Amino acid sequence: MEKNSTKAMIITLATIGIISAILLTFVYQWTIPYIEENQEETRRAAIKEVLPLAEEINQVERESQIFYEGYDNSGNRVGVAYQHSGGGYNGPIELMIGVDLEAEEIIQISILNHQETPGLGARITEEEYKSNFVGKPFGDYVVVKTPPSKTMEVQAVAGATISSSNTTRIVEEAVSMINNAYGGGS
Amino acid sequence: MSEFTQLVLLFFGTVFVNNFILVRFLGICPFLGVSKQVETAMGMGLATTFVMTLTGAATWLINTYILEALNLPFLQYVSFIIVIASLVQFVEMFIKKTSPVLYKSLGIFLPLITTNCAILGLALLIPLNGYSFIGSTVFGFGAGIGFTLAIVLMAGLREKLEFGDVPGVLKGVPVTLIIAGIMAMAFMGFSGLITI
Amino acid sequence: MSVNAKQLISDFKNGLWQENPIFRLVIGMCPTLAVTNTMVNGLAMGLATSFVLISSEIVVSLIKKLIPGDVRIPSYILIIATFVTFVDYFLKAFYPSIAASLSLFVPLIVVNCLILGRQETFASQNPVHRSFADALGMGIGFTWALLLLSAVRELFGMGSMFGLQILGDWYRPMVIMVLPAGAFITLGILIAIMNVIGKNATNDTTCH
């Protein structure tokens, strides 16, 4: 019996490969609606968090980027949300930012995805760090280790300077993206 | 920043700041298993670097031209592991034919490389970080050099430790892990040096 | 082959202590160190690995006679990778937060030496019921070891267990415990303690 012939080996591997691909196609089709629903849900919750006054969200495309415009009941635009990502300490950080274009300040930020160290960098998702950005005017921020004394200062999470400053940089980038798309000043 | 500078930074960032073994926890098995002597550690490191560089390039090609082009994300793990297993096989045959001397020194490590999670980890990180083709190759090479650095350093320490008076219960695995912990602390000093 | 209950129990018990994958065989170290920073992660990783281990041992022991010897390892890896993809999509669909915190280490179950090692040393040589018992024991052995390690790290590193604050405000968390350095040192000390209790751990250098 030629059990170890090349033909038998190729047939075995190909058969396993094909069965595996077929099974996984089913798994993919079964789970993908749930996965997309989860992502949609996270995004909706994040927009709600960064634009608390908005009653209605409009998705618009400007400069080939997607923005979420929030309107209140009387049809006034209360703010614009934008999703942006960048490198963190361990991997990409994805965040949602809501800004008030008229007042030229940040309303709130929300972290969607990150891979930072639990107990350290992961604390960028906590209110203590995120509140740094509430009501901050547009521009460049300085990351400091002590409670901020100037408007443009952002206090880093203790022991996680890199996660904090990278997040701050993503926020800066997001702000300038929104500014560019909406023809804002600076 | 020019593209070249970025690649240089990516390389050094991968070797020191995000060292595969000590920061990302990838490739711990060979790190503990094949670090008794500097010479063998070096062999393992070089063989791994070689495979990692090729994996970096191959993964990018497969991911861009097959998986993304045909929209088959669910076959990512299966296809990456096949690529790695075949690459290792190919490298083994190639070295065996071209350089028997090299084969003699690296040959025994090659089969171990397929199940080294640093290689699959590398393959998975490439689509996640969105590198270019050259970026992926440099990333693979840097990861391999970082792996070699950590494993050779560890082997050097363990060779010295042979003559040390280690308490009985700590002998072998425990003391190796504690040394690894101290090395990881030392590598924490690099964090923030380069941010990619 | 007749079912021998005594043998099944000994196959099952083997992985719990005598050949515990983490404390005795010292294999599967990457996920062991990487995801044990919180107990939730440790438990989820243990269960995910156990699922892949049990399913692939069953499949391998069922089809072992059909696989030619030379492509044994690639075939096992393919089977394992299929189950891992399943677990990954399942977690992403129904437990998105766990999937996010384990991230890269779910796919890396593919190359966990424990799983491939058991196919090679056990499932490929033993009937289905014994393979199942072995996989169950090894899976539980792996899971409890991960839980113990993550309990120590989370308690000292964050003062909590399963995310619930246990230690009060007086406790200053030892941040090093949740970092890579703390992972290595904690595991080193735990293995040393296990060495005091039983015989010394054997470092399985062959890995597969």
Automatic annotation (TrEMBL), chain B:
Identify the EC number(s). 7.-.-.-
- Which InterPro entries does the record cross-reference, listed alphabetically? Ion_transpt_RnfA/RsxA, NqrDE/RnfAE, NqrDE/RnfAE_oxidrdctase
Q: Classify the protein's membrane topology as the record does.
A: Multi-pass membrane protein
Concerning Pfam families, the annotation shows:
Rnf-Nqr
Q: Which UniProt keywords apply?
A: Cell membrane, Electron transport, Membrane, Translocase, Transmembrane, Transmembrane helix, Transport
Predominant location = membrane
Q: Which GO terms describe its cellular component?
A: endomembrane system; plasma membrane
Spans through the membrane: 6-29, 41-62, 74-95, 107-127, 133-157, 169-194
Where is the protein situated, by its record's location annotation?
Answer: Cell membrane; Endomembrane system
Domain of life from the UniProt record:
Bacteria
A GO BP term here is: electron transport chain
Name the job this protein performs: Part of a membrane-bound complex that couples electron transfer with translocation of ions across the membrane.
Recorded hits in NCBIfam families, A to Z, give:
PRK05151.1, rnfA
User: What protein family is recorded?
Assistant: Belongs to the NqrDE/RnfAE family.
The record ties this protein, via HAMAP family, to: RsxA_RnfA
Assembly and partners are described as: The complex is composed of six subunits: RnfA, RnfB, RnfC, RnfD, RnfE and RnfG.
Q: What is this protein called?
A: Ion-translocating oxidoreductase complex subunit A
Its source organism is Halanaerobium congolense
Lineage here is: Bacteria, Bacillati, Bacillota, Clostridia, Halanaerobiales
TrEMBL record, chain C:
UniProt-listed Pfam families? Rnf-Nqr (PF02508)
Q: What class of enzyme is it?
A: translocase
Regions annotated as coiled coil = none
Location of this chain's protein in the cell: Cell membrane; Endomembrane system
Q: Among its keywords, does the record have Membrane?
A: yes
Subunit-level organization: The complex is composed of six subunits: RnfA, RnfB, RnfC, RnfD, RnfE and RnfG.
List the PANTHER family.
Answer: ELECTRON TRANSPORT COMPLEX PROTEIN RNFE, ION-TRANSLOCATING OXIDOREDUCTASE COMPLEX SUBUNIT E
Q: Give the family from UniProt.
A: Belongs to the NqrDE/RnfAE family.
Q: Which NCBIfam families does the entry mention?
A: PRK12405.1, rnfE
The protein in question is named Ion-translocating oxidoreductase complex subunit E
